[in-house]
């Protein structure tokens, strides 16, 4: 059997130029989140991504007794909170939104965070170049929070950034996943698989994560997304299998090429998440929760250059949202 690739800090390396751009991104996030009440016409500050919250679920992760990483998952029953969202930076209409969904899972024991896994319903990410990614999202943040002249200037930067990253959209693996996604884009939100996109440590190894729902109808009704979730949870059992995919070969399972699917690596089940209820979606303390994956235990930390950007970005957003009265 092939040996698993071990974690190396070099996977996370950012240049001085990239670190300077990261600081500019954090400044743009601070401005956007500070203005998000005005931008969204609401009474509280929102995240700078996945601002629209559809539902918050509570449940339990039951770890398989035969899962090999017994030194990490020493507790076999862990509590979960799951925030289901839309990826857009602004709050969007439930009827006209693009079905780009987030499924952020907080796993904890006795109120101590074990892991945060921000997952999404599309398995690839089209940007590998850190500088281009940062310039794009700096421009998007500034576009939404700026005045008219700033909007015009940053719109030009957004178009330029999209042109530079566009070759990734035409990779065969990316096109294949897009076609698969389009076939099920109108499916019920709870029927999607949800993916980590980026890589995580599992002990000293490298993995990707995937959540797969069990026996969920794909048919979506005409109700709003939040009401359809709530009714489904009230009337049905909702369970999801949590899988990992190990890295054995950096060419077949690349860490910093997020626009490629991992091949020649089977999915292995960690355990099952069973949902046992919903949490009041109007509870602002829940909405202010952090799902920063860098709050994970050391053995489950994020890995990779794009992943590395999340820590400062999440912390900046959380700090400004927490100071809602300022």
UniProtKB/TrEMBL annotation:
Gene3D superfamilies found in the cross-reference section: Catalase core domain
Name this polypeptide is given: Catalase
GO MF term (any one): heme binding
Superkingdom of origin organism: Bacteria
């Amino acid at each position: 059997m092939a040996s698993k690739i071990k974690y190396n800090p070099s996977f996370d390396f950012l240049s001085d130029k990239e670190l300077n751009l990261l600081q500019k991104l954090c400044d743009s996030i601070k401005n956007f989140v500070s203005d998000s009440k005005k931008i969204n016409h609401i009474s509280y500050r929102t995240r700078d991504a996945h601002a629209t919250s559809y539902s918050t679920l509570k449940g339990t992760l039951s770890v398989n007794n035969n899962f090999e990483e017994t030194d990490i998952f020493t507790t076999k029953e862990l509590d979960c909170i799951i925030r289901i969202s839309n990826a857009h930076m602004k709050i969007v209409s439930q009827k006209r939104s693009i079905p780009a969904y987030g499924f952020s899972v907080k796993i904890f024991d006795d109120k101590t965070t074990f892991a945060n896994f921000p997952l999404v319903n599309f398995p690839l990410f089209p940007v590998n170049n850190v500088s281009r990614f940062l310039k794009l999202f700096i421009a998007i943040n500034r576009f939404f929070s700026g005045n008219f002249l700033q909007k015009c200037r940053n719109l030009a930067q957004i178009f330029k950034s999209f042109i530079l990253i566009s070759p990734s959209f035409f990779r065969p693996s990316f096109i294949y996943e897009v076609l698969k996604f389009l076939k099920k884009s109108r499916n019920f939100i709870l029927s999607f698989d949800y993916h980590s996109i980026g890589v995580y440590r599992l002990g000293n190894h490298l993995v990707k994560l995937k959540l797969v729902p069990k026996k969920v109808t794909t048919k979506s009704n005409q109700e709003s997304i939040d009401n359809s979730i709530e009714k489904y949870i009230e009337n049905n059992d909702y369970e999801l299998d949590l899988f990992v995919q190990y890295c054995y070969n950096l060419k077949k399972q690349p860490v910093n090429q997020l626009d490629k699917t991992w091949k020649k690596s089977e999915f292995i089940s960690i355990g099952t998440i069973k949902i046992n209820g919903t949490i009041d979606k109007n509870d602002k303390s829940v909405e202010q929760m952090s799902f920063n994956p860098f709050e994970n235990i050391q053995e489950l930390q994020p890995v990779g250059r794009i992943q590395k950007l999340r820590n400062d970005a999440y912390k900046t957003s959380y700090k400004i949202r927490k100071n809602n009265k300022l």
